[in-house]
Structure formats: C-alpha cells, structure tokens
Design brief:
Layout: E1 3-6, E2 13-16, E3 20-25, H1 29-32, H2 37-40, H3 46-49, H4 52-65, E4 69-74, H5 85-88, E5 100-101, E6 104-105, E7 127-131, H6 142-148, E8 153-159, H7 161-174, E9 178-187, H8 191-206, E10 210-212, H9 214-221
Parallel strand pairs: 3-4, 3-8, 4-7, 8-9, 9-10
Antiparallel strand pairs: 1-2, 5-6
The chain binds dicarbonimidic diamide.
Dicarbonimidic diamide (C5J) binds next to helix 7.
Length: 228
C-alpha cells in the first residue's frame, strides 16, 4: 500500500506513505506553561495544554509507522542577534524576549522554558528545527531537509493555530507542500481564533490546505505497520 485516503475537509486528503512527514509546531514550555512567553503576553495557557494529549497520540502513530517527524521550536540566540527590535519591542508584555522569567530567559535557546513540554520531547532520530520567526520555513533549513527526504505532504499540529501554525501552513503551501492540519492537535489561547483559522485553511477549495480530526487519520492508519 503506497497511499492512504484520509477523510478531511474540503475533500479527502490523499497521503503518499513514502513522502509524508509529521510537523509539530512549538510545543514548548514557553507557550504552554505558566511563566513563559505566552503568559507574559497576557494569555491564559490552559487551552494549549489541552492539545498535549492528542499530539502525543499523533506522535505515537507516527513513531509506530515510521513516518519522519519534525519538531519546531521558536528560539532566539542568547545575544538576540536573530530577534529584530520590531519583534522584541512589540506591545507591553510583562516580560520581553530575552528577559529572565521563572523558567529562564524568555524564548532563548537552551533555557528551561524554551524546551519542549515533558510529554512531547523529540527522540534522537527525530528532526528538530529552531526558528527565529513564526513560520517554520523562515530562516531555517526545513525546506531543504524536506526535499532531501522526498517529502511532499505534511501532517501539521502544534501551537498556536493562528500564529505559528497558520504561518507555517501558508509558507508550506506556497512551496508546493500539501498540508493536512489535525484539528484537535492544534490550539490557540483564543479558541475562536482557532476555529476561524481552520475555516480559513479549508475555505475556497482548500486554499491553504486540508483539516481533519485526529481519529480520522488514526482510522486511515489502522493496519499500517511500517511505511518504510
Ligand atoms: C507565537 C507561536 N504565538 N508558536 N508563537 O508567538 O504561535
């Protein structure tokens, strides 16, 4: 079997087993736990914690079947040379990028808060991308890595739906990747933004991509043991 069909909106997503990867966006303590970047912007982090369990299930399916897995993290260098003033100085957060908070310096690589949540730490053989922006393609080697591995289709999850997930979906779409967003594996501090983002993705015949609940993907993968 070389291709699966996943029930999705706006129409079934045809998933080539040998050229599909899972991309998990920014499941980091800085966004999901109290004391990090997300909370410093005035957000309640609880809606993001709800996606940890479904993303864990998605990872389990990917690991069981051998799909390539990419984890992204939003991270800046300690000297902030990759953080434009326009990003650091935006708004009036309690703590700015680079300031010291209860989980170390906000959004700085290597700090405890910048790490992945305990449940979703990458394994050694999984690809980790540090990104300075919202989109996973900006300022990273992601496109080159995916092409090197023959990947044309992406299963996308993570946070936040309307910021880093949506930006990544649009970047991927423009580069020719077909993207399926797993609806219950993505979350926003503002649930209405999540709902509307999913609608935007699938509108106009899937102008950005496809969306489906995780259980539809799991049903499609029933009986698949190893994509290799
Ligand atoms: C944000 C993200 N919201 N991962 N980052 O700044 O969505």
């Amino acid at each position: 079997m070389h291709e699966l069909t996943v029930e999705a909106r706006p129409f079934p997503f045809r998933l080539p087993l040998h050229s599909t990867a899972v991309v998990i966006i920014d499941m980091q303590r800085d966004f999901v736990e109290p004391g990090g970047f997300g909370e410093s912007l005035g957000n309640d982090v609880e809606p993001l914690q709800a996606v940890i369990a479904p993303v864990t299930r998605l990872l389990a399916t990917a690991r069981r079947t051998g799909l390539p897995i990419v984890h992204t993290r939003e991270a800046h260098k300690p000297d902030l040379s990759d953080c434009p003033a326009a990003k650091r100085d935006r708004g009036a957060p309690r703590l700015r990028i680079g300031d010291r908070g209860p989980m170390g310096r906000i959004l700085i690589e290597g700090e405890p808060g910048n790490d992945f949540v305990a449940e979703l730490k990458p394994r050694e053989d999984e690809h980790v991308i540090s990104k300075p922006g919202k989109g996973a393609f900006y300022g990273t080697g992601l496109d080159a890595w995916l092409r090197q591995h023959g990947i044309t289709h992406l299963l996308v999850a993570g946070v936040t739906t309307e910021v880093c997930v949506q930006t990544t979906l649009r970047e991927a779409n423009d580069r020719g990747y077909c993207c399926l967003l797993l609806e219950d594996c993505t979350g926003s501090y503002i649930p209405e933004f999540k709902r509307i983002t999913v609608e935007m993705v699938v509108a106009q015949g899937g102008i950005v991509g496809w969306a489906t609940p995780l259980d539809r993907l799991e049903s499609a993968f029933e009986g698949v043991t190893d994509v290799g």
